[in-house]
């Protein structure tokens, strides 16, 4: 059922999307620009990236209520719970030693504020029954595990880690300084950027957005006035003739054009998901003779055999081809 709903959603979005104009990669340019505009922003911590402290303190209170009620009673009565734990005369010190100290302090603080709640009194009564106590303890352990896993997940999504992943997706900062080269160049532009009539992807595509947008929109020695991406001026010139050729200036120009043509949305998980979804729909759009060419960003004509050469007068186009699996012919997703 889920797969069917996704399929229907993709079909609806495809019908509603803008169909590429003849010899135009403008719709593909918009799709990749939306990703670039988001990826060039710095991620910041949001309120939702933190675990509500009341969840942990309530869990600590419930745990101490059933495991060490005497310790809870002493800590709640003390003026400063942390100091009470360190006292030699603290009878239940074993329950709050080491890493458990912080949780005991949280439990005591929560007890002072909410210790007389209906839920807390019900828990104390239930804990008097061994069978019920066992079930409560098992449930609390499950909740504790879930909270720990959620905290670990939140830590992995902190701004520094997110920024690292965004830069990896970009390939390089579009500042005109950071180095970007055709390290996987192969023979010519069409082979490097892909030939949609075959299974094999372009040799330089799919690793990062920087190289992909250069394949999509740039001019070269054979196509000196490439305006396929809808830019006011011709796309920046790149020589697809060797692995050492520098792309940083072309990358900066095209990233600047992205900002000019498409106002950037704030970097949020929702906006990033929407941009990825738009990109995937655009790549899946059928093209060429009898609509048999897919998994291609930009435009491609005819049989697609001449490939993503930057042209558009035969079986070629200004595009990026991500390839197909030789096993099942399914589309290969960009990295």
From TrEMBL:
InterPro entries: Trypano_VSG_B_N_dom. Residues 1-17 form the signal peptide. It is a lipid-anchor; GPI-anchor. Its main location: membrane. The keyword Coiled coil does not apply. It comes from the Eukaryota. It is found in: Cell membrane. GO terms for cellular component: plasma membrane; side of membrane. The keyword Manganese does not apply. It holds the Pfam family VSG_B. Residues 16-330 form the Trypanosome variant surface glycoprotein B-type N-terminal domain. Keywords: Cell membrane, Glycoprotein, GPI-anchor, Lipoprotein, Membrane, Signal. VSG forms a coat on the surface of the parasite. The trypanosome evades the immune response of the host by expressing a series of antigenically distinct VSGs from an estimated 1000 VSG genes. This is Variant surface glycoprotein 1582. It comes from Trypanosoma brucei.
């Amino acid at each position: 059922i889920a797969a069917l709903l996704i399929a229907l959603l993709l079909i609806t979005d495809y019908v509603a999307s803008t169909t590429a104009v003849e010899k135009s990669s403008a719709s593909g340019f918009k799709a990749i620009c939306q990703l670039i505009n988001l990826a060039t922003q710095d991620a910041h911590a949001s309120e939702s990236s933190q675990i509500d402290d009341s969840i942990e303190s309530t869990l600590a209170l419930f745990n101490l209520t059933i495991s060490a009620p005497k310790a809870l009673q002493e800590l709640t009565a003390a003026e400063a719970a942390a100091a009470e734990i360190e006292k030699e005369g603290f009878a239940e010190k074993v329950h709050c030693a080491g890493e458990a100290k912080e949780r005991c302090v949280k439990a005591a603080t929560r007890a002072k504020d909410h210790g007389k709640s209906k839920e807390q009194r019900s828990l104390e009564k239930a804990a008097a029954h061994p069978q019920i106590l066992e079930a409560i303890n098992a449930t609390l352990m499950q909740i504790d595990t879930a909270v720990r896993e959620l905290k670990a997940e939140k830590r992995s999504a902190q701004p520094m880690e997110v920024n690292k992943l965004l830069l990896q997706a970009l390939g390089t900062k579009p500042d005109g300084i950071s180095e970007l080269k055709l390290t996987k160049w192969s023979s010519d532009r069409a082979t490097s950027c892909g030939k949609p009539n075959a299974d094999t992807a372009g040799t330089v595509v799919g690793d990062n957005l920087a190289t992909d947008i250069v394949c999509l929109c740039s001019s070269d020695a054979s196509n000196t006035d490439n305006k396929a991406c809808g830019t006011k001026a011709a796309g920046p010139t790149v020589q697809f003739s060797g692995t050492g050729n520098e792309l940083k200036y072309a990358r900066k120009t095209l990233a600047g054009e992205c900002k000019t043509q498409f106002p950037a949305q704030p970097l949020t998980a929702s906006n990033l998901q929407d941009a990825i979804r738009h990109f995937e729909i655009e790549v899946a759009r059928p093209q060429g003779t009898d609509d048999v060419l897919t998994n291609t960003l930009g435009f491609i004509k005819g049989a697609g055999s001449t490939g993503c050469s930057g042209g558009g007068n035969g079986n070629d186009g200004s595009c990026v081809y991500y390839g197909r699996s030789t096993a099942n012919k399914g589309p290969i997703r960009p990295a």
